[in-house]
Amino acid sequence: MSVPEPIAIIGTGCRFPGSASSPTRLWDLLLHPRNVASKAPSDRFNHDAFYHPDEHHGTGNSPESYFLTEDPRAFDAPFFNISRTEAESMDPQQRLLLEVVHESLETAGLPLESLRGSDTGVFCGLMSTDYANLISRDWDEVPMYTPSGTAASMLANRISFFFDWHGPSMTIDTACSSSLVALHQGVSALRNQDCHMALVAASNLIFSPREYIAASKMHLLSPTGRCRMWDEGADGYARGEGIASLVLKRLSDAIADGDPIECIVRATGVNADGRSMGITMPSSIAQSKLIRSTYASVGLNPADHLEDRCQFFEAHGTGTQAGDPQEATAIYNAFFGDSKLPEKTTQEPLYVGSIKTLIGHTEGVAGLAGVIKASLCVQKGIIPPNMLLERINPVIAPLTSQLRIPTEPLLWPSLAPGVPRRVSVNSFGFGGSNAHAIIESYIPPTKLTLGHSLCPQILPFVFSACTEKTLVDVLECYDRFLQEHPDIDLVTLAESLLKRRSAFNHRVVITAASIEALRTEIQIELEKQGSARAASPGIMSRPSNAPKRILGIFTGQGAQYPQMFWDLIAASPQAMV
Question: Name one GO biological process term (predicted).
Fold first, then answer.
């Protein structure tokens, strides 16, 4: 059997409730869970006017949801060469996704200029379009760029346009499974050689009470405003906001390109429930078949081989009385239903959790939220706790002999040599479109030892941004980062800033030989900027259309032969900047 090549995740960006504006902050929230639900912010809509516990007279019955703490109206339009008029017509789901995509490219260490004109593909998941509905209510005041600003297709197309990428570009709506289906399409495109790199992303922002009212009428939403996965008191799902972006490459290409590999996507799969008990009724049979077929597609047999099983399962876990038992049954049957292993085989239970108990159901982003959690888990070697479990659903209780919900952080179970940490991720659309992904830790073939000198060495640290104000923000962010990560490798940091960041028009170069010295110099630059209205003497700026100038000529005391400096230029293009 020919096994498909694994796909590497090399960059991640995200915005989730609870101020989880980066993977690092999301991990902190996962390890130290807290209640981050709230009423709808007053600048979205009047929550009290559209809420009633009995969901009558045009109201919804969900008292709280999970919102981003960042202002969704804030957008760096000049950075993306978008006018104010056009930006006002754009769905904030497009605006914020552009920013998060850029952040994911930065975590991947990919300068924007290195990707221009490439065949990079874009695969986006989208379920809700609140903004389009809102700005179209007054036909006399519809903004000029409404068609391009609110069309679902533009979520992906605008990313391809701005970054000048020429690969496949599509937006996918399969409801709650949209983003995991988008991941499946991105993985498939890479394996089919449709693109060298794939960007998989999704957005979900809430601006209107409309979906609350509609979902309440179908009794989908939780009247307590919580996703109580597999709990006896589960009463529906709580809505949540989120933005997510992943950068993918074939594993062999990521290794060859020297990219930072966070984890690998071993396999993905999709199917549909078909004619179930109802169009919104999930099917444990279809779900179980999908899990097994996804494992089988890469030669894994989790029912009969312990080493082929995942150690953690990131469930869809919305917290509904209809969906929870179906998913629990599907997971149990896929791994233990007709296992040929002896009954007395010693094994860890299969731990099952869902990020929805922490940040709510992010709808079209839910699949990627689970994948990002899975990626962080296999990188850190820790299984985070689930929230909101008081008493297991009696229907699910018989399955807990093998399935276990963690209620506190757990170290990863011990594994045999060569067996990777493995997580399964479920995501289901309410119309029956199912998706599954297998995420694994990356085990390098050999461990490389960096030959960095143990002696302190003075290194250059280059910081740049599109505006002077943004450059100050960048310096402040790095100052906080260095304070929180005092053990960071300075050589790697200097190399990343020089080679793996886009070179913008406002720059400052700082030299330092230690973390303390670097922080001191950053603070000096910040003080210069804060004490004077004029530009800091250390900040160099030039218009984007300014011609390149000769800074200096290094002759080597004689210029022994023509084009003597060319070798340096070829090795380091920055020599021409």
Answer: secondary metabolite biosynthetic process
